[in-house]
Write a structure and sequence with these properties.
Blueprint lengths: L1 E6 L4 H10 L5 E7 L8 H4 L11 E2 L3 H5 L4 E4 L5 H5 L2 H4 L3 E4 L9 H8 L13 E2 L2 H9 L3 E3 L3 H15 L9 E6 L14 H4 L4 E2 L8 H12 L6 E6 L6 E8 L6 H12 L5 E3 L17 E8 L4 E8 L3 H15 L16
Parallel strand pairs: 1-2, 1-4, 2-3, 4-5, 5-7, 6-7, 8-10, 12-13
Antiparallel strand pairs: 8-11, 9-10, 11-14, 13-14
Length: 346
C-alpha cells in the first residue's frame, strides 16, 4: 500500500486528491496537510468526508512528512514546493507538485511570468512534466513531477497531434479557453464572489496569463520550433470544467478523414483521451467529475484553418486526477487505478 501525504489538502485540488485516493485500492492518505486548519478534523472542513476521513489536519512539515510516506502531493500556491524541496527529501520520497514551480525549464522565464524568485532551480532540469499521454516513459522513472496546469493540459492535448505532425502554422495558433470558478482556488477573493461571477462571463489575464509560457513550451517541443501564441482565458459561472477552442492555419489541404486518422493514431490507446465522432463538439458536462478529456476538430475550408476543441474537468484531469495518474506510473501500478470515474450528469 502506497502511503501518500498531501500538502494543501484543504484546497479544491487537494480535496479532489483526497476524494480520488480514498477510492484507490493501492494507496492511502496518511497526512492531510493544511496550514489553515491544523488540528481540525478533515471532515469538519469538507462535510462530504464525514465518516469517511476522521484524521486531523497537520502542518506542511515536508522534512517530517518525507520520512512517513512514499509520495508527497503539493497542492499549493506557486513558490511553496520549490522552497521546501531538497536533495535529502528527494532521496527519501517522490514528489508530485501541482503548482507551476517546475513546469517551465527556463528559470528566468518562470520568474518573469510568476513574479517570484525560484527557490530551488537546481531541480528544474530533473523534474518531469507530468502529461502522461506524452511523457509516460520519463514519468515512470521520475522522483519529481511537475503536474501540468489545467489550461495547458486541455490546450496541449487538443492541439498536439496537429503540431507534432507539422500540419499547422504554429505562429498562427490562437487559444480561446473558458473555466469554471474552482480554477481560481478556494481562497476568498472579491472577484470570485457569487454576485461577481453569476450571470456573467469575462476574459481575464489577457495576453498575460501565467499558463501561456507553459502551453508555448509544450507545443514548441511537439512541433520542433519556437512557438508564440495568443491565449485568452475566460471565467464562466459554473463550478468545474474547461473548454478550449483553438484556431490555426493549415499548411496544406487535408480532409476530415486524414485528420481524424491522425488524432486516432495518437489517442487510440489512451484511456482518458476520447476523440469524438464527426461534428460532435466537446462539452464540459460530459466530462465532469472524470479524468477524461474529450477532443475534436473542424476543418474550415473557407479560411484554410482548423478549429481544435477540448473539454475536461479542471480539478480532475486538470489537477488531482492527473496527479494520481502520474503516481500510478511512478509506482508501477495500473495507470487507470482509482481513476475510472464515470462522468457525472446532470
Amino acid at each position: 500500500m502506497i502511503k501518500a501525504g498531501i500538502i494543501g489538502s484543504t484546497g479544491y485540488a487537494g480535496q479532489e486528491l483526497v476524494r480520488i485516493l480514498t477510492q484507490h485500492k493501492d494507496a492511502e492518505v496518511v497526512w492531510y496537510g493544511s496550514r489553515s486548519y491544523i488540528d481540525q478534523k478533515y471532515y469538519e472542513v469538507f462535510r462530504n468526508m464525514f465518516q469517511i476521513v476522521d484524521d486531523k489536519c497537520l502542518d506542511d512539515n515536508m522534512d517530517e512528512l518525507a520520512s512517513k510516506v512514499d509520495v508527497i502531493f503539493t497542492a499549493t500556491p506557486q513558490g511553496l514546493c520549490s522552497s521546501l524541496v531538497s536533495e535529502e527529501i528527494l532521496s527519501k520520497v517522490k514528489i508530485i507538485d501541482l503548482s507551476a514551480d517546475f513546469r517551465i525549464k527556463d528559470v528566468n522565464r518562470y520568474e518573469e511570468w510568476y513574479g517570484i524568485k525560484h527557490q530551488s532551480p537546481e531541480f528544474i532540469d530533473e523534474a518531469v512534466y507530468g502529461l502522461c499521454e506524452i511523457n509516460r516513459e520519463d514519468i515512470k522513472n521520475a522522483r519529481l513531477i511537475a503536474n501540468p496546469g489545467c489550461y495547458p493540459t486541455c490546450s496541449t492535448l487538443s492541439i498536439y497531434p496537429m503540431a507534432k505532425e507539422g500540419l499547422i502554422e504554429m505562429n498562427s495558433v490562437i487559444i480561446d479557453a473558458k473555466s469554471g470558478t474552482s480554477g481560481a482556488g478556494r481562497g476568498a477573493k472579491v472577484n470570485n464572489l457569487y454576485c461577481e461571477v453569476n450571470e456573467n462571463i469575462k476574459a481575464y489575464g489577457v495576453a498575460t496569463h501565467r499558463h501561456t509560457p507553459e502551453i508555448e513550451d509544450q507545443l514548441s517541443y511537439a512541433s520542433g520550433e519556437e512557438v508564440l501564441l495568443n491565449f485568452t482565458p475566460h471565467l464562466i459561472p459554473m463550478n468545474r470544467g474547461i473548454l478550449v477552442t483553438a484556431y490555426a492555419t493549415l499548411k496544406k489541404d487535408v480532409s476530415y478523414e486524414e485528420v481524424k486518422a491522425i488524432y486516432d493514431s495518437y489517442y487510440k490507446d489512451e484511456k482518458f483521451v476520447r476523440v469524438l465522432d464527426k461534428d460532435v463538439c466537446p462539452e464540459t458536462r460530459w466530462v465532469e467529475g472524470s479524468n477524461y478529456v474529450d477532443v475534436n476538430f473542424k476543418i474550415d475550408k473557407r479560411t484554410n484553418r482548423i478549429i481544435m476543441m477540448g473539454a475536461m474537468d479542471n480539478l480532475v484531469k486538470g489537477a488531482a486526477g492527473q496527479a494520481v495518474q502520474n503516481m500510478n506510473l511512478m509506482f508501477g501500478l495500473k495507470e487507470t487505478e482509482g481513476l475510472e470515474l464515470v462522468p457525472m450528469f446532470p
